[in-house]
Write a structure and sequence with these properties.
Number of helices: 14
Strand content: 25-35%
Shape: globular
Structural class: alpha+beta
Number of strands: 28
Distance between the termini: 17 Å
Helix content: 25-40%
Length: 524
């Protein structure tokens, strides 16, 4: 018997989210946090629609609207105001949430903490710094010291390091890190506006070689400005309140119109851990990856990490799959995080240009390519390309829609209308257009029930039957038609496991999931 099922090191938004996802599934969690009290300054300023959906799975969905402000767009502009890139955001995004949600990070963490307080099984030990981890065959021993340097040792079946960029857990594991060596120093200025003020677009990147500058929303009534340190410029001089006010003044931000909450320099990095699992110890969030801020995917990537990890830990702890299923966590998320980092670096190489001639050439090329084009929409959520996905017999790789994030619209079930996740429920979902009992035998249905799968029939438009859901927003029938499928099996992290057509195809889809899990089922 262990002291707890899972020890989480770090109680930022990533560790806190993981604790809730596990506790909602009935597991005991102890979180060890070195800080004696919550950090009250923001780091991340926004999250995308997919991440909003993942956060809503913790039970905080009803509160997100109170602490967020939807962004209306994102532009890159030249020094003289011409538009290089124009992305239009909508509040009606494909995943059931606004495309982009600005927020004050401490408010988000308070919301998650309030949800955690409602759940049995979560213990948060603040002021406890982990100093040792010993992995064994059946348990992990974690030793932490409190503020009086008194050691305490806890045992758990699993340990997850969510302890940030300077992760003790990662260093303890001696995990190699791939560092792309792409980094610049920026001055970060967080302000609270004295009077309401509309910014259109919400987020702007000014690609001015004289001073690359970022303007973003950071929740209701708050904004952030960032200014790149120039070659030869003193970091000490840049890191002064007077400098912050001087640089923000051209944007109408002065001591009369705003309160400066913070002014500090930071250096972004682009790197990822080469291993995310060593024995019974795993990494997530900034402990596993760091990226430049230009795509706004740092915290979003961490939330994706723990969403992927939580349901796989759950299957392992329930003896429905063996430890090897957690190798797919590392395989899937390391690949996705690497792609996000490379994309962010590519954006940074365009933005962080201080040579006037190079900037002029960049501007001319980009403007010529986008002339006459309307604003674009955000890219779809990044799909999985490997891991626990359905593959056709003999195929080495999965074919779309396997790996894609399933869209979300409103459905109606027995008079209850709302977003699919809220009405149907979260976890594995098998969505079919016909009667699932004619496509699947009792053994297959029993297998799905053991995974707490929601088996859902998609009713024809206008149907009055009560044994399925109506596609209120006309999202799911077009999606199935696009996939040339009559059934869709979706994982708890909303990635499509696979799609199939016909009763035989549906049965084969379920059998493939069982086969892939059974290759990792422990001997009983």
């Amino acid at each position: 018997m262990t002291d707890t099922d899972v020890v989480i090191v770090g109680h930022g938004p990533i560790g806190a989210t993981l604790s809730v996802l596990l506790a909602q599934r009935g597991w005991r969690v102890i979180v060890l946090e070195r800080r004696p009290r919550p950090y009250q300054l923001p780091r991340a300023t926004s999250f995308d629609g997919e991440t909003a959906r993942l956060l809503a799975a913790t039970g905080i969905g009803p509160g997100l609207g109170r602490i967020t402000a939807p962004a209306n767009g994102y532009q890159w502009q030249t020094a003289d105001g011409r538009t290089l890139l124009d992305i239009a955001f909508t509040t009606d995004g494909p995943y059931g949430w606004p495309d982009a949600n600005t927020m004050h990070q401490p408010a988000l963490e308070e919301l998650i903490a309030a949800r955690a307080a409602e759940l049995p099984g979560i213990t948060v030990l603040r002021g406890h710094e982990v100093v040792a981890i010993t992995d064994g065959d059946e348990r992990v021993q974690v030793t932490a010291t409190d503020s009086d340097d008194v050691p305490r040792t806890l045992s758990a079946r699993w340990v997850v390091g969510c302890d940030g960029a300077n992760s003790f857990v990662r260093e303890h594991l001696d995990v190699p890190v791939t560092d792309l060596g792409f980094s610049y120093e920026w001055l970060l200025c967080d302000v609270q506006l004295t009077e309401p003020r509309e910014f259109v677009p919400t987020n702007v990147q000014i690609c001015d070689p004289a001073r690359p500058t970022t303007l973003v929303g950071s929740g209701p009534g708050r904004r952030r400005w960032e200014f790149m340190r120039l070659p030869g410029e003193s970091a000490a001089e840049l890191n002064e309140d007077e400098t912050a006010w001087r640089l923000m003044a051209p944007f109408g931000v002065t001591p009369d119109t705003a309160t400066l909450l913070r002014s500090t320099t930071y250096i972004f990095q682009a790197r990822w851990a080469d291993r995310w699992r060593v024995g019974h110890v795993l990494l997530a969030g900034d402990a596993a990856h760091l990226m430049p801020p230009f795509a706004g995917q740092g915290m979003c990537s961490g939330i994706r990490d723990v969403t992927n990890l939580a349901w796989k830990l759950d299957l392992t702890l329930r003896d429905l799959a063996a430890e090897s299923i957690l190798d797919t966590y590392a395989e899937e998320r390391r690949t996705q995080a690497k792609e996000a980092i490379l994309a962010s670096v590519q954006l940074g190489r365009v933005i962080c240009v201080t040579d006037p001639a190079a900037a002029a050439e960049r501007d001319a090329t980009v403007l010529a390519n986008r002339r006459g084009k309307p604003p674009t929409r955000p890219e779809p959520a990044r799909p999985l390309s490997n891991g626990l996905l359905h593959r056709l017999p003999g195929a080495d790789t999965a074919e779309p829609p396997a790996g894609a994030v399933v869209p979300q619209g409103r459905v109606s079930l027995r008079g209850d209308t709302g977003l699919f996740d809220d009405v149907v429920g979260r976890g594995f979902v098998l969505l079919v257009t016909g009667d699932p009992h004619t496509a699947l035998d009792e053994d297959q249905l029993s297998f799905l029930a053991g995974l707490d799968t929601h088996v859902v029939r998609l009713l024809p438009p206008g149907s009055t039957a009560d044994d399925g859901v109506l596609d209120v927003d006309d999202v799911y029938r077009p999606y199935l038609a696009q996939c040339k499928a009559t059934s869709l099996l979706v994982r708890p992290d909303y990635h499509v496991f696979g799609a199939a057509s016909g009763q035989e195809g549906t049965a084969a889809l379920v059998d493939d999931l069982r086969d892939q899990l059974c290759t990792a089922v422990p001997a009983r």
